[in-house]
Amino acid sequence: xEKFIVxxxxxxxxxxxxxxxxxxxxxxxxxxxxxxxxxxxxxxxxLRDIKVMQDILAxxxxxxxREKNTLVIDTxxxxxxxxxxxxxxxxxxxxxxxxxxxxxxxxVRMSYPGGCAIGPRPIDLHIKALEKIGADVKEGxxxxxxxxxCLTGGxxxxxxxxxxxxxxxxxxxxxxxxSTIIRNAAREPEIYDLQVFLNKMGAxxxxxxxxxxxxxxxxxxxxxxxxxxxxxxxxxxxxxAGAITRGDVMVENILSEHLFSVTDKLKEMGxxxxxxxxxxxxxxxxxxxxxxxxxxYPGFPTDLQAPMLSLVTNGKGTSxxxxxxFENRFKHVDELIRMGAKIKVExxxxxxxxxPKLTGAIVAAHDLRAGGALVLAALAAEGTSEIENVxxxxxxxxxxxxxxxxxxxxxxxxxxx
Length: 417
Ligand code: EPZ
Description:
Helix content is 32%, strand content 26%. It is of the alpha/beta class. The protein folds into 2 domains: 2-19 and 230-415, UDP-n-acetylglucosamine1-carboxyvinyl-transferase, Chain (Alpha-beta prism), CATH 3.65.10.10; 22-227, Enolpyruvate transferase domain (UDP-n-acetylglucosamine1-carboxyvinyl-transferase, Chain, Alpha-beta prism), CATH 3.65.10. The mean pLDDT is 95.
């Protein structure tokens, strides 16, 4: 087990380039199963979740090589349609494999992805969507088995705009007979990137990024090459790092439109924001209280709720942060309170009274984004902090300590004694 040791009160300054988005890469890696051939994916960071998806694809029979930040995935020979339980448990995003496996092999068996630190994470919307286009899904004994003679186009109306369920439905529908309409689809930018990838394979997907997506089924798809979109959540995390240390940080290779809801809130707090076509610059400002409610895109992203909560613990004024997406996504609060933060949680709402400065402490990451938030808090806190369970952070932030050091942070990785 590893930990970060952070010496606080260090202003961050400089420029950092964003790499490819984990939440775009994972469904795209699953989509490579839709055809036989060699797919090439560029700008892929070294992340634990991506390594788990590589291991799953390899266990199914794919041949995967990595040349620096390029993944080469050969899905010519896939000899299994069962996802191993231990890997399903390690990463719930493996549920994305249902759609492509049903599309190409007409069957898939996997264990229930199970919950994680932020909530039970059901997959009822995924199952209902696949049943709507002809899948026969059986659940029992901790397993899900889905099969079909032939997927047929249909109408999918989501009760909730689930990101993963939208992506699963898209990937299942591309090889179905006939057309599928997906209504109340999630609109996250990663879904648009998946549409781009699928259409490069020869699929006919339209409307991703809006709440209605149409998929006209095709007979066959071919492997393709793709540069994934950059990681808006990683970018938002670095913007907060600049703001919380009252520094001057330029985040490059990011579409500012993807983070409008976040930069708008930062401006409301008094932080200076400058945006260009593919960069966002954050400069020090005083930190006033702000109210935030997480919502499906283009609302404020739940994955940046924890980093922003760390930010508002500093400064003047009171903030109210409401988490509407996940049931249990305030695991960072108790840890921040150990650092002196004044926070009260009532149900899905956290009320935070800003104080001039947190104090360093030994804290533990409980999930990916909560871990990132604790690092951010430690950067600004008085004294030294230790952040334990860094493996959570490594799931979604590539070499976070190296990137922060490049901006001047005093942070290092150590084996937990
Ligand atoms: C994706 O998760 C992301 N993961 C999450 O990022 C992100 O927080 C989330 O979308 C919301 O933006 C990946 O893309 C790999 P959902 P996903 O289905 O698809 C409920 C990170 O930190 N729900 O939109 O699982 C669910 O319980 C991760 O990078 C059902 O009830 O999110 C949750 O409350 C964390 N039934 C809500 O919908 C279902 O069948 C949103 O889930 C599916 C979801």
